[in-house]
Amino acid sequence: MNYRETASQVLQAVGGPGNVKSLMHCTTRLRFTLQDVGQADVDAMKQVDGVLGVANSSGQFQVVFGPRVNEVYNATQALLDSGGPRDKTLTTSKMKKQKWHQRFLDFIVAVFQPLVPAIAGGGILKSLLLLLSMFGWLSQTSSLYQVLYFAGNAPLYFLPLLVAVTVAQKLGSNVLVALSVVSTLVLPDLVTSLGKGMHLFGLTVTNVNYSSQVLPAILAVLLYTYVEQLLNTYSPKTIRVFFVPLVGMAVTVPMTLLFLGPAGYVAGQGFTAVILWLSNHLGWVATALLAGVLPLLVSTGMHKPLVPYVVTSLSTLKKEFLYLPASLAHNIAEAGACLAVATRTKDKKLRAVALSGGISALFGVTEPAIYGVTLQHRRVLLNVMFSSAVSGAFIGMIGLNGFAPVGPGVASLTIFVDKANPANFVHALWGFVVAFVLSFGLGFFTWKDLETTKDDQHEATKVNATREVDHVKLVAPVMGRNMPLKEVKDEVFANGLMGEGFAVYPSENTINAPVSGQVVLVAEDGHAVGIRTATGAEVLVHVGIDTVQLHGKYFLSRCQVNDQVKVGDPLLEFEVDQVVKAGYDPTVVVVVTESAEEHFSFPLVSPRKMVTG
Description:
The protein is an alpha+beta fold. The chain has 22 helices and 18 strands. The strands form 5 sheets. The protein has a 7-stranded antiparallel beta sheet with strand order 9-10-18-14-13-12-16. A 4-stranded antiparallel beta sheet has the order 1-2-4-3. The longest helix is centred in the middle third of the chain and has 42 residues.
């Protein structure tokens, strides 16, 4: 294999060196963090010599090379360091291979996701002030209340300006000029002029209040970006610094006021009408269905496209009555189910994971609970889905409204404080109680350790149980719940791209050798070990999904390259509960690599000290 040529093709397939924010590798794959994942051409990547598979998960574009990954990584990094291959441009034809809905979703998420901290912070600040006022602890006429309320209200009022920044960043246009264009829409003097009546080129300018509006700002920046790119292409370089912004603003502002702004405003009103229609016709059913499937949506990251809907709803309706109420039902159901497991289980490791996951979910962060407990135990998953749906139906029936885009939990319940309807906060408390009591009760009475049947106990806890894979006898490297490879939550392993084998969800910290042979690979961060048997077969033991991103944290190597090991000898140790707390799946994968002729080729490393924190 010509590694330099392969690296050049890989960089072109990911959209060119300019699209690469960072590059790292683990024992099997290159891991790209891209500026715009929509520019990556998956079909072209699969045609590159040596590529075994392509995956896009955990915010990374992953290219699987297997044993050759180290050489490909070095060649790719060398090209990046030297400026990359000559043809760095991404052709329009390649961009068109990305499905339109994928490009659209990528654009929407990129625009709205960065807005959440500011809007959420402002929303919670306003809700806290209202709560203090309701209890009589802070007067609404006081200067402190008014100043803080203005601060909390500013992100939504100036939402067009925030959107201008994120759209310009996404499209690569001049951020400050784009911001200046959109600032015109909320300029006090312009607002006054529109109120008195304004005409441009013989046309009447529609009187629209653009504060808190999203779509007009998006359309304005889209037009400005097009004009900017056109001017940069044809204008002389010596005058671009002032000529491009000059003409760009002179064209974009009038066009926005006459056409794009009113069109965006009407579209926003139509979106609001759709939301109201769904609420009127589906009501609590929609909340129940969304709450019931949220465990699956969150686990796959599919809940993120709902963020734009929440932000738009808050900016137009000043409230949100679907996703935030459903999230309250789901988050607290996760907490109740996990705390029930922590109460009932006799497994100390599982108890620690369930306890930390339950507490985290109580505060609105569900990933530790989902990955650490819910998805690992069918009874818990069914409990959470059922409890979420039932409590979601209850919350939908009582008509709960949310007022800030943040995960509902104990510390953020104030997002349901409504000055016009004090009962809304009480309804949120009732929804909290229903979700917790139902999920905790179901979990308490239905939980059984390790889903214990005699067959399960034999399969899940016997470390000396053997399996034969490609004529190689393998022993489970750790006690835990055995599972077929297809159930591993990593498509590279699940689809057998790295070879055939099996997996274990561990209940202990020590990973032992599944086969006797010579250690030929110890990953630098300690999360994987490769062993070559006397017959030449190569076995890879890979601990956790995406745990390479921990950079060795919670891992400790117990072997070195060239060591001779026997079945049951310790290979490495890792802190299962800490890995789960960090949001990673600790599943241990054991595979016999497909190629017997191409051996592992990785840097020699020595054991490192365990890093905790």
